[in-house]
Amino acid sequence: MTGGLRFDLRLLSRNPPDCNTKMGHFQNEKEIEAVVRGFESCSTQAGDFKHRDHLTVGVWYLRHSTPEQAFQRMCAGLLRFLDQHGVGRTKYDERLTMKWIKAIQKTMEEINSDLSLLQVTNLVIDRLGDSRVVVDLSSSELNL
Q1: SS3 6
Q2: Which position has the higher pLDDT, 5 or 77?
Q3: Residue 94: CB partners within 8 Å, gap ≥ 6?
Q4: pLDDT tens track for 68-78
Q5: Residue ranges of the domains in the chain?
Q6: What residues pair up with 135 in beta bridges, in sequence order?
Q7: What b/e string do you get for 88-110 counting C-beta neighbours within 10 Å, with b at 16 or more?
Q8: What DSSP designation does 16 have?
Q9: Helix (H/G/I), strand (E/B), else coil: 136
Q10: Lowest-confidence region among 2-16, 24-38, 81-95, 117-131
Q11: For the chain, is the Cβ count within 10 Å smaller at the N or the C terminus?
């Protein structure tokens, strides 16, 4: 496959989740807001900020701003988070952050726009929640 957003489809679920019963899914929007607040304030411990939380913040940012703004907020937030917790910036990869923001954006575009933040976040977690999912973008797609 050349160009385009690609996923390792063996790791993605195409079935919509039952948002109230899947392990690791949110039960209400206050839980989502708490993840975002913990990330932005750096009150979440570094070891407690998992892949699901990265996805959650990405969905929140994309729902509340443009894709470019979401990317910028995520980058700034990740660097602030790393600095606050004394984790070296070598763990940060801007291209990887861009790939994940684009993957979240693409997934959100495939979802009914009338769904709530809770439903969208849980669907994104269901589809992209395995951090082993291979996300590949052509260099032309790295521009928002």
Answers
A1: strand
A2: 77
A3: 75
A4: 999 999 999 99
A5: 6-142
A6: 7
A7: eeeeeeeeebbbbbbbbbbbbee
A8: P
A9: strand
A10: 2-16
A11: N
